[in-house]
Design a protein that fits this description.
The complex is a heterodimer of chains A (390) and B (97). Chain A has helices at residues 9-19, 34-45, 59-71, 82-97, 122-126, 140-154, 184-190, 214-246, 272-284, 302-309, 332-343, 364-375; strands spanning 3-8, 24-27, 52-55, 76-80, 103-108, 133-136, 163-168, 176-181, 253-256, 263-267, 289-294, 296-298, 314-319, 349-354, 384-385. Chain A is α/β, with parallel strands linked by helices. Classes of the chains: A alpha/beta (390), B alpha+beta (97).
Chain lengths: 390, 97
């Protein structure tokens, strides 16, 4: 039976990985991911989890270990943040191209300099094109559920791609929430043992990761691109099966009071709960505003997002990163939204706010101001950094 | 995978471009990388085998008369054999065609 407990989200995330009966964890501690791997190492040391915990000397080594372990056919997990994710990034691209179903929790944190251990989405956007499936949790329950779902999707033979589950550092990773942890047997029924379609085996030798000459590299990239495209229906199917088993249903894009909204704000991650409160306040004043939250970041849920925002006249997009593009174009999430709308011939007013950098609070009042500005079509383009002292 | 005849549809590639046939590098034609070709002058050659030892691509093999002959399927034209030949029996000549 599932049980509901009050627990720190990082600890719950580690417990979820344990429930998935992971075989190998290779990780290096970095704030704010630390509690996730600390707890996993405790679970292994105390005999609660029958897995190999490899305490590596860097994140580059962590992902390298994960590649070896996953290529050998083991269910493999790691976790990182920010600078560690950046150090790991060379190997992240290799993991997805080699089609290895590694699962990673990323406690999102700003990139240096100046040194910041606090939350924003710089690391998430930096890793955007790494070929991984990427989901973003809003609360602790969702992080637990997304992790279990991540293994299910990654290891599906129709997918065979690594998955990151993103959770906002501190503002989500370190809070204590009531979380329903499923029973191990229930998880096992949802998530059968991993059977690698191709693995390192001395009896049947194969080479992983060879050189790709110009006569094959384009085909290799095309095959990987198609794999990520083909993953979306499997991701949705796995959420459906998850919902049927555990009673909690997920989809690529979440909407809140968006159906008849003239103005919609698009967000990602835990900050969306603050945005929802702002939407409630504005709705009480009779304003037709709504919230759309992106849960599935890669593959990008274009069809679902268009469906969610198609009725709106004004769209505000929140970016949690300064992407240094020269100031004549918008931030990364907004660019994707604009590209999507342009290709479909849709032309609402799209405004871009950049907020919540390096742990700066974004309050309910901030959200109300952003949505009001967007309602009046008053936000400067291509973007505005809010909450900045002149 | 990347054989001489390795022009292949993306749909037929192995998962992750893995190589499932061990030792298939022997089928990879590296000879078409070459712009200069090593030619051995048998009048000067002492059959010492330095070319065989130094060649990074196993291009040379011994024939019935004891001379070391090139397999141009693999020779990339690096010129190490010509540089190392102690009697200057190997010269690099421009590839034509």
């Amino acid at each position: 039976m599932s049980k509901r407990i009050g627990v720190e989200v990082s600890i719950a995330a580690a417990e979820a990985v344990g429930l998935c009966d992971v075989d190998v964890i290779a990780a290096y501690p970095i704030t704010p991911q630390t509690h996730i791997v600390e707890h996993l190492s405790e679970m292994v040391a105390e005999g609660h989890l029958d897995a190999e915990f490899i305490p590596v000397e860097s994140e580059h080594s962590a992902m390298s270990c994960c590649i070896g372990s996953s290529a050998a056919g083991a269910r493999t997990f790691t976790s990182t943040s920010s600078q560690g994710y950046a150090l790991m990034s060379e190997i992240c691209f290799i993991a997805s191209s080699m089609r290895l179903p590694i699962v990673m929790a990323v406690a999102n944190r700003a990139l240096s300099a100046p040194i910041s251990i606090w939350n924003d989405h710089a690391d998430l956007m930096y890793s955007r094109d790494s070929g991984w499936i990427q989901t973003i949790g809003e609360n602790g329950q969702e992080v637990v559920d997304l992790l279990i779902h991540a293994f299910k999707v990654a290891e599906d033979h129709r997918v065979m791609l690594p998955v990151t589950v993103n959770l906002d550092g501190f503002t989500l990773s370190h809070v204590i929430e009531p979380i329903m942890l499923p029973d191990k047997a229930e998880v096992a029924a949802y998530l059968p043992r991993y059977k690698a379609p191709l693995r390192l085996d001395p009896k049947n030798p194969v080479s992983f990761g060879p050189v790709g000459m110009p006569d094959v590299y384009t085909e290799a990239r095309k095959a990987q691109d198609e794999a990520l495209k083909a993953a979306k229906p499997v991701i949705i199917e796995a959420w459906k099966e998850f919902g049927d088993k555990f009673g909690r249903y997920y989809k690529p894009v979440e909407t809140y009071k968006a159906e008849d909204a003239e103005t919609i704000i698009i967000t990602m991650g835990s900050i969306s709960e603050t945005a929802a409160t702002a939407i409630d306040h504005l709705r009480e004043q009779g304003k037709k505003v709504g919230l759309v939250r992106i849960r599935l970041w890669r593959p990008f849920p274009g069809t679902e997002l268009v469906e969610a925002i198609k009725g709106a006249k004004n769209i505000a997009v929140l970016d949690r990163v300064c992407s240094f593009n020269g100031g004549e174009i918008s931030g990364p999430v907004c660019l994707e939204v604009k590209s999507l709308l342009f290709d479909r011939g849709m032309n609402p007013k799209v405004m871009n706010f950049i907020a919540g950098l390096g742990g700066r609070d974004v309050t309910v009042q901030n959200f109300e101001e952003m949505v009001e500005k967007a309602s009046n079509g008053a936000a400067p383009t291509p973007y505005e950094i809010i909450n900045v002292r002149e | 995978m990347a054989k001489e005849t390795g022009i292949i549809s993306w749909k037929k590639l192995n998962l992750g471009i893995a190589i499932t046939e061990p030792g298939n590098a022997s089928q990879l034609k590296t000879g078409d990388w070459r712009s200069m070709k090593p030619i051995t002058d048998r009048e000067k050659c002492t059959k010492c085998g330095q070319c065989y030892i130094y060649c990074p691509d196993m291009v040379y093999s011994k024939d019935a008369e004891g001379y070391f002959v090139q397999n141009y399927y693999y020779c990339k034209g690096c010129g190490i054999c010509a540089k190392e030949c102690p009697v200057d029996a190997i010269t690099m000549v421009q590839e034509v065609d």
